[in-house]
Amino acid sequence: MRRRLNLLVLAVTGLVVVSFLVPLGALVRRQADQQARIRVERDVQTMVTLITRELAAGRSMDELGEAVSPLTQDVSLVLPDGRIYGTVEPDPELVEAASAAGRAQSTYTDRGWELAVPVLTASGDLVVYGLAPRESLTAGVARAWLLLGALGVGLTLVALAVADRLGRTLVGPSRRIAAAAHRLGEGDLDTRVAVEGPPEMTEIARAFNRLAARLRDLLAAEREAVADLSHRLRTPLTAVRLEVDRIPDPEAREAVVAQVERLGRAVDELIREARRRPEGRPTSTDLAQVVAERVAFWRVLAEEQDRPLTYHDPGVSVPVVVDRSELAAALDVLIDNVFTHTPPGTGLGIEVVADPPSVVVTDQGPGFPEGFDPVRRGESGGGSTGLGLDIARRVAEAGGGRLTVESPPGGGARVRMELRGAG
Hints:
Layout: H1 2-56, H2 61-68, E1 75-78, E2 84-85, H3 92-101, E3 105-108, E4 112-121, E5 124-133, H4 134-137, H5 141-185, H6 199-232, H7 234-244, H8 250-275, E6 284-286, H9 287-304, E7 309-312, E8 319-321, H10 324-341, E9 348-353, E10 358-363, H11 388-398, E11 402-406, E12 413-418
Parallel strand pairs: 7-9
Antiparallel strand pairs: 1-2, 1-5, 3-4, 4-5, 6-8, 9-10, 10-12, 11-12
């Protein structure tokens, strides 16, 4: 924007300077020409007046030549007998034309501007001749044009300096607002911008600050609503715990108790997560470590269901830009889908890839049904809510990656969650 503003001002200033300086330069050229001609006309007229006065006094041609000798520095006098008094060499053709016409004749030649004025006498026609050399017709023009050019350049530079200053007042606040918008998009809900600059920019800054405050309030209200809703689940969970004690089979009772406790921990984690204040930019999380922790958690249930569970650890730290709790929740979703939508005894594999940072979950179940998108929110092929893979997808995209699902030719399902590395 700043560069375009400078180019616009340069174009407009250039047009204005040219539209003024070109006619002004032509006027200077005409004035120099006119002054040179006026000077010659004045000298010629002075000699004509002197000749007229001397002739009225009865002077002879010889006496007339001596009388006008002091005035022959810039003009010449041509007598009827062809004698010439003066240092300027007359143009014979112009002298003859003036004598024949009986009036003044002038013309531009290679030598400059020439003027011939006839003086009618009883002894014949006298001709006073004057010459404005070509250099006198342009005297001072080059210097004047140089000054005009310098003036035009100076005006252009001043205009550019003013435009650049104005551009900074416009671009500076807009860049700061753009940077604040990026920070807001990355989760920094406390970011604000200074209200500065032109009225339009100050209004944008105020609107941005109001928007940021509104987003913070809405998110806070939403998280509180989720926390309250999660807290309400504790009552039916307590009732379920009481009913579990009535199950006569000890093994079944212990299995149900384990699931209820797992559900209780999930509800508690949901409440803590809902009430946790967003911290802006997500910190670096070790993908391999989080996956190893979740595999250890799910391995107990896999053993109870006789599910072969294989885990491939890359052996190195795999830092990714995603919140640790969100990553753990997404991994739980991917693994829980295998337990939910495949029969007991179905094997699953979990692998962490260092480059690009990703985790791959595979199973030997029936795979995804044809004709539906398993990642599409609210769509499920197994009677569930269809939100699980969508949650994992949003976590992956928030971490700068993506979620891909497929049914390999050999059967089963393969889900890959790719994330952006923190290195």
